[in-house]
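Researcher: Let's do a round of design. I'm pasting the structure tokens now; please hold your answer until I've finished.
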């Protein structure tokens, strides 16, 4: 059975273009033309990826993303926006969207983003779980088989992207990675231009992992260079 993409957009011509190209690539398609219907379909049908417009009737894309993430932390969400304001892009990422792409967009680029995000999600779900493999740092424990993270024995609610970012940094303690390197190694494709996605992901991750996010113990910043995981834990 093919992977299913849910398209939520109130512009029929956009939905038709996306549907045509995604079907041609072998995807099954679900369509919704307002936020309320989009949220219902997302929760009922459990698609493999959601293409979510921001400007929607009844519920905007931000609200749909927020409500969906309360129920589901794994399904990739790519937000579609005609807005160029930086605040809109960052706000969507802070709510839990995995990516965004601005209209008018290149179909080739959008298809590449869809493919990469679905592959990443499917790979995470299909990962083998032989025995138990853990990374332990102070109060933090990462179970790389079950893909769960614990702090003082209590599970943390991380999105798949946040888990992957944390695990990548923790697997290379002390190594500083630039934002460009993290986009390539964790996001699995290169962004052209805006690198704030990494900053937002780090901010969200610190809010869940750190006792005092403004004074991090685990995920550190090397000014002018990038981010690294504190290697002082034994």
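Researcher: That's everything. Go ahead.
Model: Designed sequence:
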């Amino acid at each position: 059975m093919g992977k299913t993409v849910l398209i939520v957009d109130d512009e029929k011509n956009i939905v038709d273009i996306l549907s045509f190209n995604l079907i041609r690539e072998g995807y099954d398609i679900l369509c919704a033309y307002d936020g309320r219907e989009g949220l219902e379909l997302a929760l009922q049908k459990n698609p493999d990826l959601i293409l979510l417009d921001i400007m929607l009737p009844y519920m905007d894309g931000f609200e749909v993303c927020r409500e969906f993430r309360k129920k589901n932390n794994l399904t990739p969400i790519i937000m579609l926006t005609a807005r160029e304001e930086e605040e809109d892009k960052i706000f969507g990422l802070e709510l839990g969207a995995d990516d965004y792409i601005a209209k008018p967009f290149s179909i080739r680029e959008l298809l590449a983003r869809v493919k990469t995000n679905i592959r990443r999600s499917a790979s995470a779900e299909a990962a083998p779980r032989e025995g138990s493999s853990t990374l332990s740092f102070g109060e933090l424990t990462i179970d790389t088989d079950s893909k769960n993270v614990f702090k003082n024995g209590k599970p943390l609610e991380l999105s798949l992207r946040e888990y992957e970012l944390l695990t990548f940094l923790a697997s290379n303690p002390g190594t500083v990675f630039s934002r460009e390197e993290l986009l390539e190694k964790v996001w699995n494709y290169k962004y052209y231009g805006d690198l704030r996605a990494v900053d937002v992901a780090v901010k969200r991750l610190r809010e869940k992992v750190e006792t005092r996010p403004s004074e991090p113990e685990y995920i550190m910043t090397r000014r002018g260079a990038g981010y690294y995981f504190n290697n002082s834990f034994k």
